[in-house]
Design goal:
- There is one protein chain.
- By secondary structure, this protein is of the alpha+beta class.
- The protein has 2 domains: about 30 residues; about 160 residues, no CATH class.
- It is about 20% helix and about 35% strand.
- It has 3 helices and 9 strands, in the order H-H-E-E-H-E-E-E-E-E-E-E.
- The strands form 2 sheets. A 5-stranded mixed sheet has the order 2-4-5-6-7, with no helix packed on it.
- It is globular, with a radius of gyration of 24 Å.
């Protein structure tokens, strides 16, 4: 026979568990939006480089420059909080690339952003490299980071060259990202390195990545 004392103790334990769950749920509901968003903030490190010389044999046919259509909620990368170069996770790859004659770094930047679900993700516009007289840039386009079960990035970048008029190539793809890992997007003319890390105000641990010539 189960004693009354045992039942009482078990009832108190269940009550304590229910009370704890209630407090936890209430805290989550009452948590200010800025604190909730802070839990999904990431440091984003991006480096774009040009291949020297370009792998012309692997190039698809260039197309004439086309207008870049931006969604109304597009952000300029310059509007996002930046991270000092010595805190970039790509400092070592940047050093290695700069010492290799096969590559030229066109653009490098690190910033902090909230990565949102796909339905509310905001494209980030990047203009980099040479600015041409007709208003075009060497690199122009967007990166869109989103998070649901995983972090994803969609690239839509155009590389423009003033060669017999202006020619343009496009890098458009979506890839899943793992936090704190280096990801490489390849193109015969240029390449992109991206690393996404949960943001904190502590120094970022820089990983040494071998980059082959």
């Amino acid at each position: 026979m189960i004693s009354q004392n045992f039942v009482l103790k078990r009832s108190r334990s269940l009550l304590a568990a229910v009370f704890f769950i209630f407090l936890t749920a209430r805290s989550a509901i009452a948590m200010p939006a800025d604190i909730r968003d802070a839990q999904h903030q990431y440091q984003v490190d991006v480096l774009i480089f040009r291949q020297n010389p370009a792998l012309v044999s692997a190039l698809e046919a260039a197309s004439p420059p086309t207008p870049l259509l931006l969604s109304p909620n597009t952000l300029l990368v310059e509007s996002l909080p930046t991270v000092a170069n010595n805190q970039s996770a790509l400092a070592d790859p940047a050093t290695r690339l700069s010492k290799n004659n096969h590559y030229t770094i066109v653009w490098q930047r690190s910033w902090i952003q909230t990565i949102k679900p796909p339905f509310s993700a905001q494209p980030i516009r990047i203009q980099a490299g040479e600015a041409y007289s007709n208003g075009l840039s060497e690199i122009d386009g967007t990166l869109t980071f989103s998070q649901q079960n995983y972090i994803n990035v969609s690239t839509d970048l155009r590389f423009t060259e003033p060669n017999q008029g202006y020619q343009q190539w496009r890098l458009k793809q979506t890839q899943r990202l793992r936090a704190d890992e280096l990801h490489y997007f390849d193109h015969p003319l240029f390449g992109i390195l991206i690393q996404v890390s949960p943001y904190s105000d502590k120094p970022v641990t820089q990983t040494v990545y071998p980059i082959e010539p």
